[in-house]
Amino acid sequence: MAKQNSIEKKPNEAIEDLGKSIINDIDSGRNPKFTTLARTRSNILYDQKNRYLKLGSASEERSFINVAQSKKFMQTIAIAAKCHKFIKENLHTTIRGLYYQLKFSLGEDVDENIFSEQAESNPLIEDLEVALGLKREELNLNANRKGVLAGNLKIIDTFGNEKIEIDCTKQGRSGWAIPSDVDNDIEFVDVKAKYVLVVEKDALWQRLNEDLFWKKENAIIMTPQGQAARGTRRLIKKLSEKGLPVYVFTDSDAWGWYIYWTIKTGSINLAYIGGDVATPDAKFIGVTMSDLDKYEFLNKLTINASEVDLKRAQEMISYEWIKKYKEWEVELARMIKSKKKLEQDALQGPRLTFVDEYIKEKIKNRDFLP
Amino acid sequence: MAKQNSIEKKPNEAIEDLGKSIINDIDSGRNPKFTTLARTRSNILYDQKNRYLKLGSASEERSFINVAQSKKFMQTIAIAAKCHKFIKENLHTTIRGLYYQLKFSLGEDVDENIFSEQAESNPLIEDLEVALGLKREELNLNANRKGVLAGNLKIIDTFGNEKIEIDCTKQGRSGWAIPSDVDNDIEFVDVKAKYVLVVEKDALWQRLNEDLFWKKENAIIMTPQGQAARGTRRLIKKLSEKGLPVYVFTDSDAWGWYIYWTIKTGSINLAYIGGDVATPDAKFIGVTMSDLDKYEFLNKLTINASEVDLKRAQEMISYEWIKKYKEWEVELARMIKSKKKLEQDALQGPRLTFVDEYIKEKIKNRDFLP
After folding, report:
1. Is there a domain that residue B1 lies in?
2. Known catalytic residue: A100?
3. CB of A262 within 8 Å of any CB in chain B?
4. Alpha helix segments (H runs only) across A185-325
5. B82 with B102: CB under 8 angstroms?
6. Mean pLDDT per 10-residue section of chain A, whose length is 370 residues
7. Do residues B207 and B305 share a domain?
8. What CATH number is attached to the domain comprising B298?
9. Does B261 touch chain A (CB under 8 A)?
């Protein structure tokens, strides 16, 4: 069975096809097997044309009659069978819930506990996602969720047999909580905002929300609350595909940069769904080391970079998807030289609303890093 | 100036009174000072009658003409002045934003940076909360927020000069995100739900939400997403005060128990606002070690308790607010003896919806731990 990424197929049909191909193999006296792409570091590459991290073409076969693979093969098929059931039941769980179902139903039938640790089932789920060309969200497995947004768009969430309309200008101090799955039974409509501002920290998001920044600027303000979860990355991409520019606003430090590059080019861990979660057109709005030249007061609000920051900055300079941008080389080199970093919170120094002015000015002058 | 916990006073009046008392001291040639309650471990006690952790009566004076206190005194007054400004501006920030404002406006006027580390300003904010008898939320300082809920209640959030009504039966897969401040400019109305179920893990909350458990049971389902943030603890208490029973549903391990006891009796760290955040009538619904007797299948879904779990269980047995309950002694002893623990996720073993049945049965039989 080949990877079906290019074919639009309902999840359960894809699982059934996998099952049929295995039965065919057995009926024909062949060793049952399926093919997945290698998720090893050497098969993760930066796609120059599409500008994101993805898997290369190295494939791996999982076959049943193979001492090293037999157990994993059986485990993977057990996972596929469980997901097939979840989809038929129209119920969702997490990989932890799946793990317990496997432990419950397979622990007795076979001599040994076929899943003794969840760490065993996780890579097999990724195998299955790649082999079937489906995301785990389509297999009814919720990933961790995190992140909120506010702004001029509406959500139609088909939930409990009802179509629930959520107006993201009417979410008050809380904002709308971004779910794990932003693709299935959910639509983003009346997107009248002009751009998306992604703010690293919830604290700054709350600051901007209180100022009704999203209303004054006709923007969508979103916070991933740190590193962006799968659902948040996917939603940023979807909004970008609707034509909205995406501006990312983080600390000027290793963690902030990591958050930005993960949104823009995807990440090593999720390279196997890179095309679904990367937003290559995202721009970096700040804070930057060069803000220290533009805003004098920030010089007394820097803090010392940690060893981790410095080490990470050094590594980032060497990444091919970063070093191709002169501006980023300068930015990173400046931190390494000065051993100082800057937090987005520092923009509140002169007055709480200064952060609004800062962002508006950056956007007006198109003062971004690529 | 004495602690004003018992007096209802607008936040800025309380701050102004503090300022006036200091000016009075100066005008009268006295050493300016204010009084706060000691937040040392020895002054934290379990209130037998009210059943929560609170500060004792040991008070501490902070005075200006005192080599050890002079700097802290000045810093505390600077914090009070900033909060007074935030309240007048009707704008909120975090303790991190406050820190940068202090660094910005005081870094130049005096020879040394009066706040070089945020760790320096945090305890002073607590000093001020206690001295003024106000929570930081009333000083326009947002705390971290976390947690979501769904169920039959409405929220009137006065936000951006609008009264926004949020119907918590219409939040779809996301739920309503619980904010930092659940007291000011926000009301909880039409609370028609019959009880509050607090679910440790967001994953399980999503499972129950998908099953419309809140609708079928006429309950409010809430998840603190791990340890409960200040806003979530406060909201649980407010709902309890409206007469709703509160049932807490966590893992049967050290972390889960800690979440429960923090909700019920408050915590050491927040003992200074114990009366505002503890919900002494909360009950523990599960999962429990004794579930292993009631639900045979759970025996194959236990996992090994960690050293931390065992050590913590041993400590908890000795707490006066826990050891007074025989049931908890038995529960804790059982884990210590078996070295096994149980996750709430394990209830998904037989079928995804089993968790619903489990909770309903527990409530029907009033099968709780105190």
Report:
1. no
2. yes
3. no
4. 202-210, 213-216, 230-241, 254-265, 274-277, 291-294, 307-318, 320-323
5. yes
6. 51 96 95 93 96 96 89 91 96 94 72 62 89 95 96 97 97 98 97 98 98 98 98 98 98 96 95 96 97 96 94 94 95 96 97 98 98
7. yes
8. 3.40.1360.10
9. no
